[in-house]
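User: ok so my PI wants both of these folded by tonight, can you help

Assistant: No problem, let's get them done. Here's the first:
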Amino acid sequence: MKRSQTEQRKNPKRLCKRATLKPTEMGMFNNFPEEITQHIFSDYCMPLSSLASLCMTSKAMCDYIRNLAIDSQLVIRPINEWIVTKSCAKIKIRFIEIGMLLRTASSYLNTSEKLKVIESFFYELGETEPDYQGTYHRICEDISLKFAYDCIGLLINRFIINWDDKALKRTFELINRLSRLKERMDKVLLLNEPGSKEAHERDVRQFIQEVFLKKAISPDQRSLWLSLLFEMYPTQHARLLYLLYGPLQTSGGKYNGMIDWTILTQCGNYGHIPCPYSYFKELADIMVLIQSSRLFYWNEHTMTRFFNELTNTPEPWCLENNAKLMFFLGHNWTVIILQAKLKADRIAEFSHMAYHLAQVSSQNSPEAEGSPESLSWFVKVMFEAIQILPAPSRRSHVISEVFKAWRENIQALSEEFDDPLEDDQEDTREDLRVAVINLASITHLLMEMILVNKDSSSCYSSTAFIPRVRHEE
């Protein structure tokens, strides 16, 4: 006797069992037309997070969703929406989500198959144009090239999270080939002089920064990208780093993306145009990262040689700009560079560099400008640097040359201030005031160290007042 409908409703397990379709790799979606399935899987009906959960069900589902994620329905349509809504943030979030979805849908693939996913993504965006730019015409017709590179970098770097160095190297080689990066870099580093191809330089800088360096998830990954770039140009390291992190030109008070190759060769006033301190912070940070990375093996000789090459790119920098870069490089770098000048017997250059370092130290100290405390970093650096000279007489000579250079700079500033034809007398007067105050502060520090320190007899030479190394317990 058949059960009544009321009895069937009381037994939900039986109803569920009878309603279950025959299991397949795509489940019930096999019963739908392709157009309906694509519409269901589009974000009109289903968010990307749900698609990522579906990837856990079967290999066939992973393959289907991965191909759908690469397809223009998920990648190109958001760009068209941005053109209408001008919502950059939404587009960036979308590319991040697509990258994470691709990563989930490709979890069972080997490295070679995962690289094919990246290659398919690049081809979906559109092949590079024959011009110098790697213009991906599917997303760059109505938006800026920099923003397009930003989106590409967000997607790729979410896709390659937790890859080992070997896989990352293969990824770099693939992107290098697909984007013709080597060809574009050759034009700006080997075939033309700095600044002669400004648009090419801007394109290369933006691509490398947005796709690789800025999107790196760790300092180690950023070091790896830099090491691979350095391997491509073994004799152009300094110029390459300037290309990637050097100062940019300004137009109407805003950066226009073009690299300024001459600004650091110009001398100005401390804290004023043409070279504000912001020009040097990023350069210094990346140099410290490279020096500390296990991929570069930089020793003291390499650090000094690189610093000299960089500060002569493309022409010798002004000494005050050298001092600004050294200050942001930190204590160890500065001591090594100064000691290299003493080893080479370049006393005059060392002395004038010391003068500029003192001005930079005073202006960037958290203590009050011109106070003795604001020059404590400079004093420590100088005392450690001259320890490389074993003879007290040599140390005394170096210190004398430093104060001689200080006197020459003050005299030059005084003459410049007295010149009625000078246009920037206010800035000159400020530099003169700071130089005199800093000289008085240095004298205060030295006198305090000599007269007040109880252990002065064991810490300083009685003839030259030059400190010896003191080891703290």
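One down. Here's the second:
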Amino acid sequence: AVVSTQSTGTTVTLLTTYNNGGLQAMYKGEWHDVPSLLGSILMMSGSLMHELTDGQLPPLRHRVIDIKRDRFSLPFFLNPSFHSDISKTWTSGKETETGRSFKTFGPWQVTQLHRDEPLLLNSTSLF
């Protein structure tokens, strides 16, 4: 059973899985098991990084499958500062799709967190 399927919405996610399997990544339209090696770190680029680099770094579509036991992992989200301009790409300076609604990273991230983790933030998170 699939627990969740997603593309990371942020810029870069570093993930250690502590030798726990269950992570799969989409490659050329097919799901593949991601090797889980103790002591390793997986780097995933997200949809915002894809935009900011004019599509040079594709977002990793991934999912977690039920491995019939507890599964632990530790993500680290590497993101721009709250006030960083995300309205234009880093390479060509073209307007990003995200930039049509958000000029800076912070308000965009808060909106994403409200969508993805509704219990994490409250209605005054932007203030």
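Residues 24 and 33 are 4 Å apart (CA to CA). The mean pLDDT is 85. Good luck tonight!
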